[in-house]
Amino acid sequence: MLSARLATAAALLAACVTAMFVLPNGWWALALIPLLAAASWEWGALAGYGREARWIFGLVVLASAGLLWLGSGADPSGKSGEFGLDVAVYAIGCAFWLLVAPAWLALRWRVRGPYALGVAGWLVLVPAWFALAKMQMQPAQFLAVLGVVWLADTAAYFSGRAWGRHKLAPTISPGKTWEGVGGTAAAVAVYYGALYSAAPGWPWLGALAGAALFAGVTVMSVLGDLFESWIKRCAGVKDSGVLLPGHGGVMDRIDSLTASMPFAAILLLHLA
Fold first, then answer.
1. Number of folded domains in the chain?
2. How many angstroms separate the CA atoms of 249 and 235, rounded?
3. CA distance to 2, 19, 116, 196, 203, per residue, from 123 (Å)
4. Is residue 65 within 8 Å of residue 34, measured between CB atoms?
5. Which domain holds residue 174?
6. Among candidates 257, 271, 22, which has minimal Cα distance to 127?
């Protein structure tokens, strides 16, 4: 299982980084559409939708993504001084993750209403896709931020396996531990320090902005992971799908990104 997990992660990482630096922004956004479609299909299954309802939900998500992309325009610098559509989409996503998702987890809501789960699925998927699409306009900085999420996932997995004793949220995700969280925090701190020394030309890595970005992305990535774990638990499944060997489904691979990327996009593209 570990070998399959590592092989899948390596293949995805190589493909992602190559596309990130090679593709024009519009083509990059288009390349993310199959992943968005697969994640929408998996979310529909977690929500208990039948086949027809899953198709409808997926079409709504994809149509929304297309309309948002067309309505937002493109700034080659990846920055915008105007708080327009882009920031509104990120802010809606952040509001869900900072207000709704924590309450959902704290109160252990077992929401099975199709409309509530449909709205939640839209808020989980569309702002994250939009952020991932837009942040590619600054590929080096984008890769640095993605590195926080990837490192956090990896450090939590291995430190939790090695030293995990105290459960983080046993009724939500029994495998996650406080030791894993500690390993994540230490790894991200070292990564931030190394990047700060290696890239002095990036003003957004300054002490306050960089620390806020890295800490926020780390916390949000853990929240996204826990939220998807709870949705799967309510649906009575271990994985969201079977598309990725060793990882389960697409949602299992992007759960941390769904929560962290809208937050990162606001800071990196509009406030840095």
1. 1
2. 14
3. 31, 26, 11, 32, 31
4. no
5. 2-271
6. 257
